[in-house]
Specification:
A hairpin with a 2-residue loop joins strand 2 (97-107) and strand 3 (110-115). Helix 2 packs across helix 4 (49-63). The protein is mostly helical. The chain has a domain at 11-135. A 3-stranded antiparallel beta sheet has the order 1-2-3. It has 9 helices and 3 strands.
């Protein structure tokens, strides 16, 4: 049984610093085939292409983040950077992958994953290193640890509000779409009614007649008919 929203919500809760997605920077000069060959060659042999590409982008991003080098095998980082040097189009030192925070929401069994606006992230005031990556503060104690946890809690609350805002915006759009459909149906009914009313023939009783003044009392004009029914 698949439950996309609950599964995604749990996965998002387990992400340190919040759920993210990784996107190749525009005009970076990299293709999917390059990622499979130089970033995740072994993973691509064991897993489907889509899975390998999903894992390749964050690994490539981490290879150019100075704060994460201690977590990666030096040989892996050298291999990726050496291969990238031959195809690089971006300025020296610029990471070819952009990390974007996302918010996970759901509505009526539908899963939505939305990018968090840069302006909103500036409001949140997340802790970042010099290259823009989120610095994970783990195992801190004392006043510093308390402050980090307080900031993290405030950040999570703001992200929760952002999630609610996105859900409300979707509900408003759905209502607007329903209103537009109703207005369209009303216009159709109005047009059909107008056409039907113009096709109803005029009732005639005891022959057709016109005002006496119009016919001048000519033969065949029964003025009493006109007076009786008009």
């Amino acid at each position: 049984m698949e439950l996309p929203y609950p599964d995604a919500k749990v996965a998002a809760s387990l992400c340190i610093g919040g759920p993210s997605k990784y996107v190749l920077v525009e005009n970076c000069g990299l293709l999917d085939e390059w990622l499979l060959e130089y970033v995740v060659p072994n993973i691509s042999l064991q897993y489907p292409r889509a899975v390998a590409l999903t894992l390749a982008r964050p690994l490539l991003w981490a290879s150019f983040e100075s704060t994460l080098q201690e977590y990666l095998p030096p040989a892996l980082t050298r291999r990726i950077r050496s291969a990238y040097a031959f195809v690089r189009r971006l300025p020296q030192g610029k990471n070819p992958v952009e990390k974007r925070l996302v918010v996970v929401t759901g509505s009526e069994a539908e899963l939505y994953i939305d990018d968090i606006d840069a302006e909103f992230m500036h409001t949140v005031g997340r802790q970042e290193d010099g290259s823009g990556g989120v610095v994970a503060q783990v195992g801190l104690t004392g006043a510093r640890g308390t402050e980090i946890r307080r900031v993290s809690q405030q950040r999570n609350e703001l992200l929760g509000l952002y999630s609610q805002q996105k859900e409300t915006q979707r509900d408003v759009k759905q209502l607007q779409a329903q209103v537009e459909l109703m207005a369209k149906d009303i216009r159709k009914l109005s047009t059909a009614f107008n056409r039907f009313s113009t096709r109803i023939p005029g009732q005639s009783f005891r022959g057709s007649c016109v005002p006496p003044a119009s016919c001048g009392g000519s033969i065949g004009c029964d003025s009493t008919n006109y007076n009786d029914w008009n």
